[in-house]
Amino acid sequence: MSSQGKSSHTTTTRAPRKSDLPADDVRDFRLRLKEVLDEKDTEGRAWSSSKWGVYAFYDYDGEPIYVGQTNEQLRVRVQRHLTNQRTDAVAMRILDVFEVAEIELWPLWDLAGHGAKDPVARTTLDAAEYTAYLDAIANSRFKAILNEKIPPVSPRTTLPPSLRRSLIDEKTRAERGHADIRIARRAETIARLAAVARERGEVSEGLRRVLVIQAVRLAYLSAERLAVVEGRPTPDPSAINVERLVGSVLSEHSDPHGLEEDSNDASV
Q1: Residues contacting residue 137 through CB under 8 Å, at least 6 positions apart
Q2: Where in 28-78 does DSSP place strands (E)?
Q3: How far is 153 from 134, CA to CA, in rounded Å?
Q4: Which pLDDT tens digit goes with each residue over 77-124?
Q5: Is the pTM higher than 0.85?
Q6: Most exposed residue of 7, 39, 130, 255, measured as fewest CB within 10 angstroms of its CB?
């Protein structure tokens, strides 16, 4: 008689969860990002839950690299940059997510309840973003950051309390933060950005400005590494004069008052 039993070789497999697919360092980064976005202030509000707000990204040296604003919620906007990668700043290779080591959030709680097109709220948001941008420029070794579109020129204002946190652990810092890895990564970012400019042809002046600023950042990081190898003092960042290379970074050359619609960093 032949056996009617089921084969012992039959196995059941299941597709992994999407959250388990990224590499370990990416999962760790996203977990830390979630923890930061879930962090609450003294009133029990998640810092990132504010509909209106301003945010900034910093690299492994604590160097400010990008400032932005949102009226759709800080959490949503930041995640689009750093996880979904659905903003032009990332898609166009202007901002390298792997270079983001810290984040800072300025929630504008006073604007809660205002509509997205409310002119008073928009003016307040623009002033907060421009103030954060000016502070980032002042705190940058190169006096320039990677915004493709400079925020509309606005009067300085007093920024609300902010939350600034690291998005990487010591293991990730040791792995990604090595100078040779960062040099290679930055060179790759520049190559991709240059390819965008070449393939599209008609790109913003801001994108071409960012290409120069990224090249400056690469040149300095490479010079810094050379100095370490040769046992010399760290080079002075002022050896590179960004303003002489790209002009003023305080307003757009062709749109000094920010009157043109900013389509390069629109929500998608």
Answers
A1: 64, 143, 144, 145, 249, 250
A2: 53-58, 64-70
A3: 10
A4: 999 999 876 666 766 678 899 999 999 999 999 999 999 999 999 999
A5: yes
A6: 7
